[in-house]
Amino acid sequence: LLRTHVRPGTVLYVSKHNMSTVSPAFGSRLQYSRVGNRTVITLQDLREDDSDNYVCAEEVTGSPLLSASGTMVLVKEAEQACEKSSWGFYALIVVVALLLCALVCFTLYHMDVKKYFQKKKPNVVYEDMSYNSRRSTLVR
After folding, report:
1. Where are the transmembrane segments (predicted)?
2. Among candidates 68, 4, 72, 76, which has minimal Cα distance to 46?
């Protein structure tokens, strides 16, 4: 695998004996697998400076020519401004939620909550108006 335009050079070289050499610029960011005539190369965690034309080339035995096909890779960095401001937004939401919880807890603590949930006993006065009770008061 070669880079051909921006930073020309070898990215991955695999010999006939399956010995591989990976460019230090890609180190652990490159993986490849080979099954028969088919080779799969995966580049991970791409950066802007990885943008280039990549060519898979194969040495033709007894010839100075290469058999090759290429792919243009353009990497654009995502804007980080939104991520930084979103942390502040989430922090603000958490602070507002905590203040709201504190306000509710403070209100419930200083309110007599039990009186709102107890069954109220009716104010009933019972007076015995039977003949026996009236007679005992008249005798005295």
Report:
1. 87-111
2. 76
